[in-house]
């Protein structure tokens, strides 16, 4: 807990109420965690992963401790989570977010493509819990976060990590890609729906006034991801190509310690899976993620902040 309190700092640096938001994560979250064992174990586990990141010589032991905390958190949540109430809403809200970030931060145990399918399923839990608990959370310590809308709660810094050039050309040609070869009608419909949502997300990234956020990028897709996830598991080329374009958005978050390298790993897995005849469809994601110019070193707050 000491590591969490001393390293969780800059979260919403561009907001006027920055100091208030910092207080929520540095002071209110630990208070909420003390009311629910599952939330406390999630905080401690995620903090252990961050310490493993900053102190690599201790990483093996710290990662083992982190996984142990997560296992305990999940067991306690199944035992005590229960129906969402005014008393547990804030703890469940914080717990679900920590579990999602934990899933990105822990080393992969399955191929990156399959890991993305698992994450698509996992992030739906955030939306579910939020829908169940919105009223109570909005009356509790996380109210200032929800007051701006979850999408604005953890925003990207203006002017940082802009999308590479060529997005319009590449993304808008994916509609043609869906009709370039025979597909089952249901498969084509599923890909088209996900692609439409991805286009909207790209559009939001390009419009600063849209308030694009870490949350809005991670909580993709908003619609039921199960059919699209099955297409990815079956290695349907069109679904993998759409996933490759999503990797460009994930790469915007790459300076954050808990997701660093994810976009590269998933995209390399896609490259190794697609047949040669499909490779030209992912040239823009490859150039945007794998061949991008060397980034400048992150600021101290980006290196240390748990949720930055």
Structure description:
- It is built from 17 helices and no strands.
- It has 308 residues and is mainly alpha-helical.
- It starts with a helix and ends with a helix.
- The residue ranges in which pLDDT falls below 50 over 5 or more consecutive positions are 9-17, 151-156, 297-308
Going by helix content, strand content and strand pairing, the class is mainly alpha
Radius of gyration: 19 Å
For the record, give the distance between the C-alpha atoms at the N and C termini, rounded to a whole number: 18 Å
Give the number of helices. Answer: 17
The coarse silhouette is: globular
Domain module count:
2
* Main sheet overview: none
Secondary-structure element sequence? Answer: HHHHHHHHHHHHHHHHH
Q: Kindly state the mean pLDDT as a whole number?
A: 82
Strand content: under 5%
Helical residues, percent = 55-70%
Say how many strands there are: 0
GO molecular function, one term: DNA-binding transcription activator activity, RNA polymerase II-specific
């Amino acid at each position: 807990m000491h590591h969490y309190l001393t390293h969780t700092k800059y979260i919403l640096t561009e907001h006027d109420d920055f100091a208030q938001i910092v207080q929520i994560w540095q002071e209110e979250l630990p208070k909420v965690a003390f009311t629910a064992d599952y939330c406390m174990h999630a905080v401690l586990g995620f903090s252990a992963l961050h310490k493993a990141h900053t102190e690599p010589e201790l990483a093996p032991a710290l990662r083992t401790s982190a996984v142990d905390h997560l296992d305990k958190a999940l067991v306690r949540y199944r035992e005590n989570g229960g129906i969402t109430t005014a008393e547990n809403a804030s703890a469940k809200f914080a717990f679900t977010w920590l579990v999602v970030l934990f899933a990105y931060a822990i080393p992969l145990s399955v191929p990156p493509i399959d890991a993305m399918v698992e994450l698509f399923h996992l992030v739906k839990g955030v939306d579910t819990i939020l829908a169940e608990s919105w009223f109570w959370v909005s009356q509790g310590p996380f109210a200032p976060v929800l007051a701006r809308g979850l999408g604005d709660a953890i925003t990207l810094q203006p002017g940082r990590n802009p999308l590479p050039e060529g997005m319009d050309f590449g993304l808008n040609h994916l509609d043609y890609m869906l009709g370039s070869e025979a597909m089952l009608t249901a498969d084509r419909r599923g890909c088209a729906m996900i692609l439409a949502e991805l286009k909207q997300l790209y559009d939001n990234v390009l419009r600063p006034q849209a308030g694009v956020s870490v949350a809005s990028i991670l909580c993709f897709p908003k619609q039921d991801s199960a059919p699209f996830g099955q297409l990815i598991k079956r290695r349907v080329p069109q679904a993998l190509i759409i996933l490759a374009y999503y990797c460009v958005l994930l790469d915007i978050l790459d300076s954050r310690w808990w997701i660093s390298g994810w976009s590269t790993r998933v995209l390399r897995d896609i490259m190794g899976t697609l047949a040669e005849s499909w490779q030209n469809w992912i040239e823009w994601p490859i150039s945007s993620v794998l061949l991008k110019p060397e980034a400048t070193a992150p600021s101290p707050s980006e290196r240390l902040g748990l949720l930055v």
